[in-house]
Structures are given as C-alpha cells and as structure tokens.
Amino acid sequence: MDELVALFGNILNQIFGLEGDIQSIINLVREVPNVAGTSDGTIYNYVLTVFNIILPIGYTLMCVFFMISFLNKTIMFELMHWENIVSMLIRLFLAKVVIVNSFALLELIATVVVGICDTLAPNNPDLQGFSRIANWNSMIDQILNEFRDIGLIAKIFYFIQYFVIWAVMLLIRIAVYFVVFGRLIELCVYTIMAPIPLSTMVSDEFNSIAFRFVQSYIAVCLQGVVIVVLCYVYLMIAARWINPGDGVAPIAGVIAYVLSSVALLFALLKSESWAKAIMGL
C-alpha cells in the first residue's frame, strides 16, 4: 500500500510545474539558428555551411529570372528605351547584392526580434514571484492525505482519475515543446533556402515571391515574441485561476490548472497564424 501511495505522490508531483518550464520555453524562443551566440554553435555552423551551398543555386536562378524578364520585355518592345535597360541592370545589381548579403540581412532581422524578446523576458526572471503561482506542496499533501484515508476501491478510482490528468499534462508539455522546436526548425529552413526565393527579386513577373518570403520570415521571427507574451499571460491567468480558496476541493484547483494549460497550448498552436496576420499574410 505504501508503494501505491508513493507512486501516486510521484504522479501528483509530475502533474504540476508547467509554469516551471516557461523559462526553458523562453530560452528556446531566444535561440535563432542564424544569429551567433543565441543558439548552439553546431547549428549555426551547419546552417551557414548549407546556406553557402544553396547560394550558387540562388545566383543561377537569379540569372534565369533575369533572362525571362528580359525576353518578356523584348517581346513587348519595352527595351526600345534606354531607361528600361538601365532599370533592369540596376535591379540585377541590387538583387545580386541582396542575395550575397541575405544571411546577414536575415541575421539582422532575427537579432532585432531576439532583442524584443529579451526586453519582454529578461534572463532568469523571478517567474514564480511575477506570476504569484501558489505553492503546490500544501495541495499535494492534502490530496495525499485524502488518498491515504479512503478504501482500496476508492484508491483505484482516485488513482485512475489523477493518472488521466497526468497523461493530459504530459501531452500538453510535449506539444508545447513541439511548437517551440518546430519554429526553430522553420527558421533553419528559411535561412538555408533564402537565396532561392530572393532570386526572384530581379523579375517583374515573380518578384512577389521574394517580398512574400521576407514577410514570412519576419512572421516566423515575430512568432517568438507572440510565444513570450503568451507565456507571461498564461502565468498571470494561472495565478488568478489556480489559487483555490478556503473550503474549495483540491480537484477544483487541479482542473483549473489543466484548463489554463490547455488554453496555453491552443494559443501557442495559433501563434504562427497570429504572427502571419500581423504581417498581413
């Protein structure tokens, strides 16, 4: 019986503590693969290496799009004026400059967003003091005392009830980290493949691809700001919902905790679409 109580106590301890993961989540949001010093050096070097491999493809595509635009303007007799020829050459030159420096340009954008995240969430903030999250030890002790005082059959149903809650919270934590890691991977892909969509800048027919790519990249970066804001909003909501008053059953506080965690998860799943909406995508 003591083993069952000990196992039940371990499950209770693992149910609570999502607010303790907030700092880890914020630290992951700060990691940007193309900004030196914010992420693991191995990731940065890998992204830079693959980017340099993709770069010649971007040059080739830039020439292809330039020729397509040149042929279209020739057919439409738009190159009869020297101003149009100069305009195309200037656009080719600017596109070349942008593609060559695209890694640095994306790094600049990401650095600005990381700075915003640092302003909103400084390193190692006193999250517990900020959010006024209740000390769960007293609630856990109260639930354990109730568990010890009931019969075996009731213990089984009690155990199943909290085991389901533990499983739900485990899935929520996995999903939250999945969202944050997914954003990191997305930033890697955007940075590595940047020369390809940016090569369309040289063409009147396809340059919208380049502008849309820049908007999308900024949106993915801004998703980090949205995630940081959502984490702090979650802490404030949890502080209001989770603290059960005197005479309130512990299960009420547990349910409120789970509901607020579910709300955080759904908000994080929507963070990407919210960031894109901010950028008009």
- What fraction of residues sit in β-strands? under 5%
**End-to-end gap:** 58 Å
Alpha plus pi helix count: 11
N-to-C SSE series?
A: HHHHHHHHHHH
The level of helicity is: over 70%
Mean pLDDT: 78
Instruction: Provide the gyration radius in Å.
Output: 26 Å
Say how many strands there are. Answer: 0
Q: Which class do the helix and strand fractions yield?
A: mainly alpha
Helix and strand topology:
Blueprint: H1 2-15, H2 22-30, H3 41-75, H4 82-100, H5 102-120, H6 127-131, H7 136-149, H8 152-193, H9 195-198, H10 207-242, H11 250-278
Helix pairs in contact: 1-7, 1-8, 2-10, 3-4, 3-8, 5-10, 8-10, 8-11, 10-11
Write a brief structural summary.
This protein is mainly alpha-helical. 80% of the residues lie in helices and 0% in strands.
What features would you describe in this structure?
The chain has 11 helices and no strands. 80% of the residues lie in helices and 0% in strands. 31% of the residues are buried. The chain has 281 residues and is an all-alpha fold. Residues 128-134 have low confidence and may be disordered. It is elongated, with a radius of gyration of 26 Å.
